User: What shape does this take?
Amino acid sequence: MSTWRPTPSLVRASLLALGGLAGGVVGGLDVLVVLAAPFVILAGMGLAGRPRHLPTVSTRIDHHRLHEGQGTTSRLVVDDLAGVEHATRVAGPAPHVATRPTYGAAGSLVDAGLPLIEFSPRRWGRRAIGAERVGLTSAWAGWQWGPVDMPEHGLSVLPQTAPYDSRAEVPQPDGLVGRHRSRRIGSGTEFEGIRHFASGDRLRRITWPVSLRTGELHVVTTRAEQDAGVWLVVDGLRDIGRSGGIDGAASTLDLTVRAAAALAEHHVRTGDRVGLLVVAADPSRVPLGSGPRHLQRIHAVLARIRTEGRSVAPERLDLGAGAGSVVHVLSPMLFTPLVTATASLQRSGASVVVIDTWGERDPGTDRLAWASLAARMQKIERDDRLDRLAALGCPVVPWRGPGTLDTVLQQLARRARVPKVRAR
Amino acid sequence: MSVLDRVLPPGLTSGGLVLRVVLALLPCAALALALPEVPHLVVTTMVVACSVRWAVTPDHPAGAAALMLVAAWWAVHDVVDWRVLVVAVLLLAAHLVATLLAHGPAALPVDPRLAGLWLRRALLALVPMPVAWLAVRGLDAELAPSWLWIVVALVLGVLLVLTSRILVPEAE
Assistant: This one.
């Protein structure tokens, strides 16, 4: 526990005052009295301003869960400010966290309010902010309390919800109600056709213009609207590239996580049921669900993803997904076992789309450097894996944000409507 | 990254840099007022070195050493003319600039409200200085009553006790 200690300023003023007066009186050096006179005032006022109580200081932050790029404020809480004139706070640097003031140092007179420090996480994940040192100074800078280390606060940083929208239908909606056009005829709003009236048809379905023109009753038929089960498989095995946070370059894991967050939000907003499978050293699985709370759960799981060198790709993806589900595999596809698992999933009847999250990588200026050579070899192997996946009928699309999946989902939907011949 | 960026502490504000330069110059200027009489080389060197060290770390004891060296030089040469007043102002300014800078690390911007507060305090602290100067120039110590010296001795004793108290660190 810290106590009130004299500041170097008070020690200096006291030494000068005492030395000057002593030298003037004892040594007969009159000039010293003149030079020491101002310091007598400063030393006296500083000594008299010692606070009587030891303060209890803590810090708190306004939010414990944020999205990338959002900000929160760290506030200083002092129980007793009697005798305190100035407060200083210095926050330590934290990776991928921006602070305001830039270097995390803030100070102010207590009369003007205790100093604030703003933190803004620039990358998703678990962040520790608020590790700082706090110091208080009494009136006339006579006494100081601290600096005292304050404990840090854990902050869960959810991935940024990148703007994403898709007008494509999910190929095989299999739920009860939703926004996607079903393959079955039902009581939806999507026009399917006009046919002769049959017993059992509802009267409000009769199309009077056609009935009057033809002389026979005709009804409008519509398609039912259903929701779909969408699985997001997130590859958290490796993180290639340097992450510059939300303001800079994105690593492969950045792209993967942000794309997964955007897709999850889009499908939940559409009314679909969304599930998540994280393939990483610490794998996690979120079953199918819908609604805002489910979306928050998915974002929280995404924010916890960490890569480790020892993590290995699984032999199969255990989703429990039915034939009607759509599976988005978000991965830079750096591991052959993951490619095999994806192909197995495709063969099991699910509509699988691989979203390539390799992104744009700088090949480097020196083509003969070891790193550059290794990157090229890795790219050749990766392209080969993706080609084999595409040959199996599994579409591979690079992540481009809005509209990334429109074309491929429309093709899958058409493919799903084609009659299939199955050998027994 | 320029050479200046490598030498200066990270985050040092322009206001902080200016104040540190001023802090390094003030004790030197107080000694330079003696010109054309040139102080001894050892004194000059020590004052400059202590001032620079003080400017780098405003909390450092080198600051007290620089101020004491300058004050001692003027006291030893027994100069009681107008220059003593200027020297006193310069030493006080150096002390207050260091106090202002010592409120936080180099990255802490100088608070204008705090600077204004210390400017007012500096003006208040300067009040006894001309009084002391006039007393030194106009009063004859041999004519002073004997009780005056007893009072001065008592004040000195109290100050000695207080100073010794603050110099001994308290057990935490």
Q: What stands out?
A: Chain B touches chain A through 66 residues (CB under 8 Å). The mean pLDDT of chain B is 83.
